[in-house]
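Model it.
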Amino acid sequence: MDVNEALLTETDSTAVDPNKEIVLTANSFPSKVCLIFLGKSRPLQGKRQMLVQYWQKMLKISDDLTNVFGTEMLFREGDKEFWIAIQKPLVDPLPREAEIGKSFTAYVIWMGAIKSEGHWEWVFAMNEFDAPPDGGPTQKGK
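Modeled.
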């Protein structure tokens, strides 16, 4: 997910008006990543919800993606934490199958970035996951 930071830095410095507060991407960089579930969730709202609405319009998707991705959950990749919008059918099984503090494989896309309080926040969405049969290593085992 760090790849997006370099892309945004390049985009921010060359093509984006510094007064803009949103970057959308048609290339969602589908990725298979190893995440650690941190056990927190929240509704998708505010500027992050707005970005999803703009992304939906840009791609001419008829479904209401703010409903499809209405919940975000907190994860760690390496030493960074990310709030990731979770596809609705995964909201209930994910906490049961991906234990808190243990790693699992997630399939995520990058929707874009939005400026919040002077810094860029990346907006990712998860549409599938594979929890390892043994629960994977714990945070302590990083």
